Amino acid sequence: MAKAFFRLQKFLRRTQFLLFFLTAAYLMAGSLLLLQRTRLVIQQGLRGTSNPALPVPEGMAGISIADPRMLQNPRPSPRLLVGTDAMQEPALDQRHGPLWLVSRNSELRQLRRRWFHRFISDQEPMQTAGFKAMKHTAEHQGTYVGCFSDDSRERTLKGAVFYDLRKMTVSHCQEACAERAYTYAGLAYGAECYCGNTLPATASKPEECNSECKGEKGSVCGGVNRLSVYRVEELRAGARRRRNVIYRGCFRAPENLTDTFPASLIQPNLTVEMCSEFCSKKEFPLAVIRGRECYCGFPTGRFSLHDGADGQLCGGMRNASSAAQGKYCLVYQTPVQDTRCTDRKFLTTKSKVFVALSSFPGAGNTWARHLIEHATGYYTGSYYFDGALYNKGFKGEKDHWRSRRTICVKTHESGKTEIEMFDSAILLIRNPFKSLMAEFNRKYAGHLGYATDRNWKSKEWPDFVNSYASWWASHVLDWLRYGKHLLIVHYEDLKQNLIPKLREMVEFLNMTVTEDRLLCVENNRDGNFKRSGAKQKDFEPFTQEMKDLINRYILTVDEALRGRNFTGLPREYVPR
């Protein structure tokens, strides 16, 4: 009897364990099924929106409109617009009024954060297409000089700096340095490229350069604090002399040129090519010509390049021999990069003030980050992770956005919760017509390309405008309502008056910078973010219906800005 009881007890223990295991498995399976069903419901909801033809980005959730009382009176303001009777049609009021904005924003709330991550996987091949072509057309591999020590505080190869943390190769680095007329190309950490005309002083053991190139297996791209240095082939020297030399204009010469410019050359038959080549070898971005005198240097307070003179005062022709001998000089931009403002790092201590750099997509946020990083010397962070930007040197992309190790954090968010987590914000606003076109270009051609005619003429463009125009308005209105401490910056003002506006932004970030550093930023204002490719001339993608829709939002935002005692929208925003 005892033996039978023991067997029964043992069986029940096993059954208890088995039941526990089956129950846990059942709960896990149910959870997975619930998650899958939720995902399907969201996808079906997206397909059922009012714009089924539009692949609406997943980055537009959480957009809540400001207090509806701010939008109750969307009538045209005499301060901004006259003669907009077409906007008062009842159908337009009903479809695109404040209540429609609120309901539209609730639809968009589900679509925000994953959009930027999805875009990365779609666009990274586009971003690297140009590099692949460069790699395959490279004519040489250069001459390997050796492995050298790399001291970031006293770097020898400092003429230009490039990053590609996914696709860096030896050829890529050499081509980048060759285009800027440098003699040496050095690679470090498997992904960083440095250019210069002087070899590093300290050689290292060959085995210390042991980092594999990120984009080329089996190739060595330096190491930790070590540079693999190559000499760019002299065969390219003749082609480089005339490359990337830009005429900056005629300027009044400073009183003492030798004090203003650190290098000079006197040549009886001086030409632009001679002076540019001389200054490039000396690693200066400016070549200044006065008669037979050539001077090299940087833009400074003494010579800021802000007040140009009539070209006839320099002889009318852009050549050295006809330049005025005394008061005026010709100025050229050499291929050399101005490196006085290229050093960047993370904050050494956590920032006490959590600052956002907020904008609607397509409003120039990446460009503003480029300016801020080079002006302050500190990286900017991001609420998202964009691998293409990280590979271009925005190292703050991989830093957690709440780490407070960056000077400010990029965001396109506009919900109450997302706004109130920041202590202050720089709110960057751009003309919605230009913003929508820029974002459409980015969506279909990446950060630096243009959408094709086929994209513009497809049904996706009107659906895109219909969906995104309300986001432009609600983004500004939400930040005006929930933002704690705001600095409003208009993209157009920043572009036209770069140094004053950038100084204002830097002061808002509680930083101080020198005038020379700001001039360096101005000299590198475009960075690597100027769109390339065929741009359509006199292209008007907006129909009258689209213009009427966007004009309503312009008036709403303008009145909201003035209601908060900010300056209204620039005159450039005047409805078309």
Automatic annotation (TrEMBL):
Repeat listed as a keyword: yes
InterPro entries: P-loop_NTPase, Sialate-O-sulfotransferase, Sulfotransferase_dom, WSC_carb-bd
Top-level taxon of the source organism: Eukaryota
GO molecular function terms listed in the Swiss-Prot or TrEMBL record: sulfotransferase activity
Pfam family, one: Sulfotransfer_1
Residue ranges of every copy of the WSC domain listed in the record: 141-233, 244-341
Alphabetical keyword list: Repeat
Keyword set includes Cell membrane: no
Family of this protein: Belongs to the WSCD family.
Record protein name field: WSCD1 protein
Gene behind the chain: Wscd1
